[in-house]
Amino acid sequence: MKLPELKEKLKSKYIVRVVAGVLTIALVGTGIGATAVFAEKNSTAVTAEADSTTDSSKDADDIADKLMDSVSLKDNDADKDESVYLISDANGNVNKTIVVDHLKNKDKKDTLEDASNLSDIENVKGKEKFTQSGDKLTWQAGGKDIYYQGTATAEPPVTQKVTYYLDGKEISPEDLAGKSGKVKIRFDYTNTTSYTETVNGEKQTVSVPFAAITGLVLGDGFENIEVTNGKAEVSDSSSVVLGYALPGLNDSLGIKDGDLDGDVNIPEYMEMTADVENFSMPAAMTFVVNASDYVSTDGIDTSDLDDMINDLKDASTQLQDGSKTLAEGTDTLADGLSTLQSKLGTFASGVGTLKSGLKTYTDGVSTLSGGLNTLGNSTGALVSGADKLNSGAGQLASGSATLKDGLKAYTDGASQLNTGLNQLNDNTGSLATGVTSLNDGAKKLSDGINAANKGAAGVSAGAAQLKTSIDTAKTGADSLAAGAKQVDEGVGQLTQSLSDMPETIKASINQSLEQLNELKVGKLFKTLGYIDTDKITADNVSAAADAAVNNAEKIIKFLSTSMNDPAPSATYSKIVVGLSQGKGAVTVYSAVNQSVTDSASKVKALKDGSAKVSEGASSLDTGLGQLSDGASELSSGASDLAKGTTKLATGATALQTGTQSLADKLPELTKGITSLVNGSNELVKNNDTLNAGATALNAGASQLSAGTQSLMNSVPTLTSGIKQLVDGSNTLVANNAQLNSGASQLADGTNQIVSGVDQLTTGSKTLSEGAHTLADGMVQFNEEGINKILDAYNGDLKPFTDKLQAVIDAGEEYQTYSAIADGQTGSVKFIYKLASIDAKADSDK
């Protein structure tokens, strides 16, 4: 292609129009080339796939490919075709970059070598695997083409800045949504590439000749649309604005103001103005391509300007031949339109399926909203249950405190009993001494009775000695009676404590388990597979506590996702503490219950010993009473000596019987007392363990009470989140009618497209008839256009052509955004997806 032809095509913006046509098809069909991009509204979750997901987008891809093939000035025979998707906010700031590469396996090789600096590489069309060494990739292609994608962070070669104005003042896109007034949107493009080329023997810096084409889909309410460096296409259903620019080309060619006349323009920006009511911009995209990929440079020869000018005549002949080729191409176009009609029928069917699917979706949204509203109405029961749990935890803490006090009273009683038994044990020596003295006294009494007849003096002496013996025996008897009384009191207190203590502990444990079951902790653990029942019982609380400790991560995740707990780790810790203390309480109950069982025989021994002591004391009291009577009678006077000695003899006999009985039972009494002492010592040994267990149980109950209080404090946050879900579902339901209406409009529009293709088929015949007339007009246009460009440029054409050649060379050197293997050729295009701007329902007019 000759220089004048290139400049004429630049003047007429031919390259730009080619790319703009591709972008228009892409916007209508939601697909570009062989790929489709899906983005969430917030433009944060984006994926690219090698195959289109709907028949409609595939048809659009086919149309785009046919249009590119029919208007391209240079075949794209690259080994690697790269599409770079840049997800941006409404101001043009890139948030994420996804690259899709197509490796063409022209020779059907088993392996394909490639180079790439992308991250997260994955095959998006097949199951072929690859190995990587640094930037080198080796694909097991098996004779097939490879489609793969990855992410990148490098700056793109062309950046864009989008600025919004309302009534002459700059405004953010968020604030512009829903506003009304005079709106201006300006796209400024910056070419960041730099190549050093030799021009007329000198090194000069030029940029890759990128063409940037921006398409905007506008909402309702746009009027009086004006576009600088572009055009607007307005219909009853939508408004589309297309703008173009060739950023950096003026600087690369060294063009200054005045070098070109008014008919030639190389734009660096695109700008649109309109009168708007309730502003919205549903879609905005920018398509950036390397112009060298669409311009054939074969045949350019800058060595002799005169030869190039003379070749213009030959170009006229070539144009005439081209018109014949154009006529033949119109026949091919007619065949393509027939194929398109068939595919549009399939597309129309797909639209019907979409419409039906949307109806199913909106019905599902309504069902979801009903369920969420039911959940919202149940928050009262949730609050009530949490309150009951909190109340029960408080009662557990109170009961554990009572248990702690009861155990303290029990251990104090055990200590007192131990003290009394040890005192009783100490007094057994005095008792033995008393019994010995009593036996001696009885013997002496017998001697005195025998000597009574010998004289009053002997009687008096015997009576005095008898009185002393009786006093000594009485002291021992009193000590024995006091010890027996302490034994009876201790045994009674011990019996009551042992009887009450297990039931008190058991009552507290049952109360705690009731509160845990009101919280449905058992049901939660059954759901997670840790226990087999909906209840937390004394038998399974240990297993539940162990499961809670061993499955922390799973429980925390379940609390976070299923119970919407804002602090699942804290709640988990409180559950673990409560279950662990419950486990400790059950352990304490088992120990106490076992202790009571073990003490039963010892308590029985205490009772038996106490009975024997009481029986001996009774016999001793009887004998001492009789002795006391005899001594009184003996002291009454010598005159009654005979009578007294008779009674004394009787008393002595009874005394001997009583002292003998006491002596016989004394070993058993001593053994019983020793058994009592040993048992009380064992009880006292467990006092510290019991008190420590009760203290630990009380501390755990207090922590559980604090945990349930924290749960109560979190209930308002949970109920607030449920309300937000309910409000969100209601919003979805509110949009159901609009979605169904949009699906109906899409179906109607599809029918209109089918009708339009029918009209286009008819028009293609007219196009064929006008092809020869076009050939004649093209000859005249090229000649006049060429002359205009030659006159428009006020300088030497030789340096200009050399610079233009350098720009084209720079474009041919730029073949990939990511990387490319040695010896391979590449082609790359950039698609910028901007965030949409939605109108506000309560817009400011």
From TrEMBL:
SUPFAM superfamilies: Adhesin YadA, collagen-binding domain (SSF101967), Methyl-accepting chemotaxis protein (MCP) signaling domain (SSF58104). Keywords: Membrane, Transmembrane, Transmembrane helix. The chain crosses the membrane at residues 14-39. This is X-X-X-Leu-X-X-Gly heptad repeats. The keyword Membrane applies. The keyword Aminoacyl-tRNA synthetase does not apply. InterPro entries: Serralysin-like_metalloprot_C, xxxLxxG_rpt. It comes from Agathobacter rectalis.
